[in-house]
């Protein structure tokens, strides 16, 4: 039984007993790496989820910030009052802005996830991200200014510090402002990622 063997361009043919067998070299499959745009999209989702948690916590902590204050004026006379975050317009604005940012972040995650292949929504979302980030920073600045007055007072305007009488209340203020500030910084990172993604899609 005669057997012949031929090799041509990486292919081998074996003839045996009138039958022809063909062997073809198959290159091993190379796993594909996720693209940089996909990585940025996933990073954006994760950061938005973190913003949701931070702004929600900031809203709750600021919303429940209140304390009853008792000041001893003399041995026979005391003053009793209540400090509450909703008594100050800056803190109310802070609560509204963080609530808005929390709701918007949740909605934007849903919109981005359901419209991954729709590039027309990227620019409107980036503009909305910019607006919400600005609102967050202004809300934090406004609340921080009042919180500093509560901590240190202002002798020029005759505003006395209240944190030595309402330490629990001031602790709530500080915690909520820190949480919201972190959310603002993360939102700024999300905005940068959105701009980079838009720039890549335009080329």
Q: Could you tell me the mean pLDDT?
A: 80
| Whole-number count of domains | 1
Question: Main sheet, how many strands, which sense, barrel?
Answer: 3 strands, antiparallel
Strand content: 15-25%
Number of helices: 4
The total count of strands amounts to 5
What is the approximate shape?
Answer: elongated
Termini separation: 64 Å
Structural class designation: alpha+beta
Instruction: Report the helical percentage.
Output: 55-70%
Main location: membrane
Organism: Dendrobium thyrsiflorum
Protein name: CASP-like protein
Pfam family, one: CASP_dom
Description:
With 203 residues, the chain is of the alpha+beta class. The chain has one domain (37-202). The protein contains 4 helices and 5 strands. It has helices spanning 36-63, 89-114, 122-152, 167-202, and strands spanning 3-8, 11-16, 19-24, 66-72, 78-84. Strands 1-2-3 form a 3-stranded antiparallel beta sheet, with no helix packed on it. The longest helix has 36 residues, at 167-202. Mean pLDDT is 80; it is low at 1-16 and 29-34.
Blueprint of the fold:
Layout: E1 3-8, E2 11-16, E3 19-24, H1 36-63, E4 66-72, E5 78-84, H2 89-114, H3 122-152, H4 167-202
Antiparallel strand pairs: 1-2, 2-3, 4-5
Helix pairs in contact: 1-2, 1-4, 2-3, 3-4
Transmembrane segments: 45-65, 91-113, 125-150, 177-198
Protein name: CASP-like protein
Domain Casparian strip membrane protein: 40-185
């Amino acid at each position: 039984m005669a057997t012949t063997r031929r090799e041509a361009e990486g292919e081998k043919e074996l003839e045996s007993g009138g039958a022809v067998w063909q062997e073809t070299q198959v290159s091993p499959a190379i796993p594909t790496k996720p693209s940089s745009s996909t990585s940025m999209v996933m990073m954006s989702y994760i950061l938005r989820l973190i913003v949701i948690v931070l702004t929600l916590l900031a809203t709750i902590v600021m919303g429940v910030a209140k304390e009853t204050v008792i000041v001893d004026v003399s041995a026979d006379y005391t003053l009793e009052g209540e400090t509450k975050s909703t008594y100050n317009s800056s803190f109310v604005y802070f609560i509204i802005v963080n609530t808005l940012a929390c709701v918007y972040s949740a909605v934007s995650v849903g919109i981005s996830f359901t419209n991954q292949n729709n590039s027309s929504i990227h620019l409107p979302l980036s503009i909305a991200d910019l607006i919400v980030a600005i609102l967050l920073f202004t809300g934090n600045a406004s609340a921080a200014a009042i919180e500093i007055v509560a901590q240190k007072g202002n002798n020029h305007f005759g505003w006395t510090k209240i944190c030595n009488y309402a330490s629990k209340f001031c602790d709530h203020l500080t915690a909520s402002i820190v949480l919201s500030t972190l959310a603002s910084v993360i939102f700024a990172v999300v905005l940068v990622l959105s701009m980079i993604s838009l720039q890549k899609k335009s080329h």
